[in-house]
Specification:
The complex is a heterotrimer of chains A (about 350), B (about 270) and C (about 290). Chain A is an alpha+beta fold. Chain A is built from 10 helices and 17 strands. Chain A starts with a strand and ends with a helix. Chain B has a domain of about 170 residues: MetI-like fold (Orthogonal Bundle), CATH 1.10.3720. Chain B contains 12 helices and no strands. In chain B, helix 6 runs antiparallel to helix 9 and helix 9 runs antiparallel to helix 12. By secondary structure, chain C is mainly alpha-helical. Chain C starts with a helix and ends with a helix. Chain C has 12 helices and no strands. The longest helix of chain C is centred in the C-terminal third of the chain and has 39 residues. Classes of the chains: A alpha+beta (about 350), B mainly alpha (about 270), C mainly alpha (about 290). Chains B and C meet through helix 1, helix 3, helix 4, helix 5 and helix 6 of B and helix 1, helix 3, helix 4, helix 5 and helix 6 of C.
Chain lengths: ~350, ~270, ~290
């Protein structure tokens, strides 16, 4: 185990950023930390890096208690949203920065050797003499990654490092970064608010909301079997029926006229709109009786405003599959809560 | 069409600015290298370096040139020493009494320095700081420090704290971060501060006169008696010298900064 | 915890040297000036020198001419400075032109005074040009613009020197301003003046007040320029104070101190009112913008 958070909290007099967080991260694992903005994920990352103090709890890295160690002494590197390459230094000088001062100081020859070696790995060795403003956004983030990895950190923290890139570049660079981190065997915590990105990057996913970990697990597990409503809403797609969650993949659409005998469980819905993706047709369906909307893929043709049946398997089967104790609130409870609020 | 109109407007404004701000100084320069240019000739018909020779043959001038530069450079350095931490604190921390502190640091430019210099006069004599270059350097802090703090604070305000944190997570301590990241990134503000402070120090007559007691002869001390002298070309030359000093200072400054960056820039 | 207490003391520690300089010079300097101004002989009230001061016609005239020069030069620099800034910002995306506009900042005030003398004196360049163009027959027909009782030369010097300062202070304001409001105003049919009044004024106003204050107070208390381009009567206050300070046997020293302490008090009062007003304007404006 490489990193462990033990009951970590960050509390101000009038504001709780996060509270009682516990997680263990294995060596070589990439954890995606996903959650809406303001859920405390960035502050948590800064606390692990040592840029922000926690109010209580312990942070262990490599088995050592790091809770009160300064940022520059921790074997952790944080990559920010912006590449933050020092503009007065060349690419090579930027990459070797971490070996020039402080605890990782190395002789000049070794610095250059390791710097060039890493630049080769991020495929930018030809640009070593350039300045940051001569590089594209994606190249800059790759240099920032090389600069972070040169000190052989036990743990790399990435705070939405692709958010400043345009969507197309973003898609290609995140796969590249993931493969790179895996090849180098780097342990990493990756913060994002993008569900898809979290699934692509992470071996495991930690869903954070209101300063708490709502669920920690493999991407598929969290997607198919969200622990609670918050996780389902943020991370999954599907319907809640009678206090159970049904993944969108288990839902199908039938024309009102062509109900099959096996479709014992159904709800009436109305097609809102449709779109095409990955060669398939998807429908936005609103289900008035559940007061929910969901996106369902279907090979049948439907028109806008057409009434349909949304069919699903018995929810109890789902519940048995997971073998988990359900902590779903029923719809009526949820409504009550809303009123009392 | 619109493009051309904008180009034309740009040209007009550019010329206007040159005529207003630069041309008068050029006329002054021409005056200093002219020979026998007087009313009612609108331009000189002969040129000569006579005025400059007269000036530099005067031993008083070269001595006071040295004193002026020594005072100016010292004032710049001391300003950096005390204004950089203050500006950093004002920009990076929130603390009790910040507004009061900012107002206090503005005081020297809100109160006539003459009042303060007159008030300090006897005390400075008692402390043995009058008639000496130390006293002059200290009193020059008064009209310069508020500007130094203001310009540097604006510089720190524009510099995101992320840079310092990025350096810290890469393993550099606070001191290293300051010299290798913060200083290079606020070079524009440092430059503005240095030039502004140098020019203000160069422009002091009355403070130097009172505290220096007529014994610390900076250039303004010998310029004032010159002002009404009959040799107009020499006065012009002397005036040009004042315009050249900040430019020379700036050139030396840039060289020092280049050297500094070269030293901290290693792969 | 002791370390967190240390952290909270850090900013004060960083500010200490600057504050010491200010306290030593401003605090102590003003204190001794005030003390000297109330150093009276037996039987005189402590305000004796102040009483003397206000019975002195020389002083009252100096005060009047100082306020005249300070007000006119500051107001004109401000108006021209704002006008130039708003045009330059729109015309030039790059900042190269800034160096030209800031050039006068590299020139000491007394050299600027010499330049004004060189151009505007009866024997100056403009006079020569006027003669060449046949507008005047001899030097004495040229209007008296330097060493004149209205201090036109001094005012010209300050305007030339302070316009760049105004631009320097206002440039960031204009660069931060959201120019989309201007587009809105223009599409609604506003002309240049309307745009300035409704869009720019609320941003420019507080900074302009501050700049006005700094320049006004500076001109009021500065010795260098009026010493060169002024006249023997009336003198501006700083020149008069310097004269009295060094007059034979130091007899007028208390009077000089009293005058400068009075000027400091006026400056401080002006600063207090203007800054409070600017602050109030700023917060009120911010509130109104939030409501909108």
């Amino acid at each position: 185990m490489l990193m462990k958070l033990e009951n970590v909290s960050k509390v101000f007099a009038d504001l709780t950023v996060f509270q009682h967080l516990n997680i263990e991260v294995n060596r070589g694992d990439i954890i995606s930390l996903v959650g809406p903005s303001g859920c405390g994920k960035s502050t948590l990352l800064r606390s692990i890096a040592g840029l922000s103090r926690v109010s209580s709890g312990k942070i262990y890295i490599d088995g050592k208690d790091m809770t009160s160690i300064k940022a520059e002494q921790r074997p952790v590197v944080l990559m920010f949203q912006q590449p933050l390459l020092f503009p007065h230094l060349t690419i090579l000088e930027n990459v070797t920065y971490g070996l020039k001062y402080g605890k990782n100081k190395k002789a000049k020859k070794e610095r250059i050797e390791r710097g060039m070696n890493l630049l080769e790995k991020v495929e930018l060795e030809k640009l070593s003499g350039r300045y940051p403003n001569q590089l594209s956004g994606g190249q800059q983030q790759r240099v920032a990654l090389a600069r972070a990895l040169i000190v052989n950190p036990s743990l790399v923290l990435l705070d939405e490092p692709f958010s400043s890139l345009d969507p197309e570049l973003r898609t290609s660079i995140r796969t590249w970064v993931r493969d790179f981190l895996k090849r180098e065997g780097v342990t990493a915590v990756f913060v994002t608010h993008d569900r898809e990105e979290a699934m692509i990057m992470g071996d495991r996913i930690a869903v954070m909301k209101d300063g708490k970990f709502q669920q920690i697990g493999a991407p598929e597990e969290v997607y198919q079997h969200p622990d609670n409503e918050e996780v389902a809403e943020m991370f999954s797609e599907g319907l809640y029926v009678e206090g159970r969650f049904i993944s969108a993949g288990k839902l199908s659409l039938r024309p009102v006229s062509r109900l099959l005998a096996s479709d014992s469980q159904k709800a009436e819905g109305i097609i809102q709109s449709k779109f095409f993706k990955y060669g398939l047709t998807f429908y936005h369906v609103h289900i008035p009786e559940l007061n929910q909307s969901v996106v369902i893929q279907s090979n049948s043709k439907f028109n806008d405003k057409e009434a349909v049946h949304v069919c699903y398997k018995r929810p109890s089967v789902e519940a048995c599959d997971t073998g988990k104790k359900s902590n779903w609130r029923t719809q009526s409870q949820k409504n009550e809560q809303k009123i009392s609020r | 069409m619109i493009f051309n109109r904008k180009k034309a407007a740009q040209a007009v404004w550019f010329t206007g600015c040159i005529l207003l701000f630069v041309a008068p100084v050029v006329i002054m320069f021409i005056k200093s290298v002219s020979f026998g240019w007087s009313w009612p000739e609108w331009r000189p018909d002969q040129f000569s370096l006579r005025a400059w020779e007269v000036m530099f043959r005067d031993p008083a001038l070269s001595r006071s040139l040295y004193v002026t530069v020594a005072v100016g450079v010292s004032v710049v350095l001391i300003n950096f020493l005390i204004a950089v931490p203050s500006a950093y604190a004002l920009s990076r921390f929130s603390f009790k009494g910040k507004g009061v502190v900012e107002a206090l640091l503005m005081m020297p430019i809100l109160i006539p320095v003459l009042a303060i210099a007159m008030g300090m006069h006897l005390t400075m004599i008692r402390l043995g700081l009058t008639d000496r270059i130390t006293g002059v350097i200290l009193i020059h802090l008064l009209p310069t420090l508020p500007y130094a703090v203001r310009v540097l604070k604006a510089g720190f305000d524009r510099l995101s704290f992320d840079w310092e944190e990025q350096s810290a997570v890469l393993g550099a301590g606070r001191w290293t971060t300051f010299w290798t990241v913060v200083v290079p990134l606020i070079i524009p503000s440092l430059r503005s501060t240095a030039v502004l402070v140098f020019v203000i120090s160069l422009s002091q007559y009355v403070l130097t006169a009172i505290i220096g007691g007529g014994k610390v002869l900076t250039l303004p001390m010998i310029y004032y008696p010159y002002f009404n002298s009959a040799d107009e070309a020499v006065v012009a030359g002397f005036s040009v010298l004042f315009a050249l000093l900040p430019i020379a200072f700036l050139i030396v400054w840039e060289a020092v900064i280049k050297g500094y960056l070269f030293v901290i820039r290693k792969p | 915890m002791s370390s967190s207490k240390l952290t909270s003391l850090k900013p004060y520690f960083y500010l200490l040297p600057s504050l010491l300089v200010v306290f030593f010079f401003v605090g102590y300097g003003l204190y001794s000036a005030a003390k000297s101004s109330v150093a009276v002989e037996e039987g005189q009230p402590f305000y004796y020198h102040y009483q003397q001061l206000f019975q002195e016609g020389v002083f009252l005239n100096a005060l009047a001419v100082s306020i005249w020069v300070a007000f006119i030069s500051t107001a004109v620099s401000l108006v021209i400075g704002i006008w130039m800034t708003r045009h330059l910002v729109r015309l030039f995306k790059q900042d190269h032109w800034k160096f030209i506009a800031w050039f006068p900042m590299l020139i000491p005030h007394f050299v600027a005074a010499y330049i004004v003398f060189l151009l505007f004196a009866p024997s100056g360049w403009f006079s020569s040009v006027a003669f060449q163009s046949g507008w005047l027959e001899n030097m004495s027909q040229f209007p008296l613009l330097v060493n004149d009782p209205y201090y036109i030369g001094v005012i010209l010097t300050y305007i030339w020197k302070e316009i760049p300062f105004v631009i320097l202070m206002l440039l960031p304001v204009y660069q931060e301003m959201d120019m989309r409001y201007e587009d809105v105003s223009r599409t609604l049919g506003g002309n240049g003046w309307t745009v300035f009044k409704t869009v720019e004024f609320p941003w420019v106003w507080p900074v302009s007040l501050e700049v006005f204050l700094i320049l006004f107070v500076f001109v009021l208390g500065a010795f260098e320029v009026p010493a060169l381009l002024g006249v023997t009567y009336p003198k501006m206050i700083p020149v008069l104070a310097y004269d009295w300070f060094y007059q034979a046997a130091w007899v007028n020293r208390p009077l000089a101190h009293a005058m400068m302490v009075f000027l400091s008090a006026v400056s401080l009062a002006a600063a207090f009112f203007i800054l409070t007003f600017a602050q109030r304007w700023r917060s009120r404006w911010a509130m109104r913008r939030e409501e909108a």
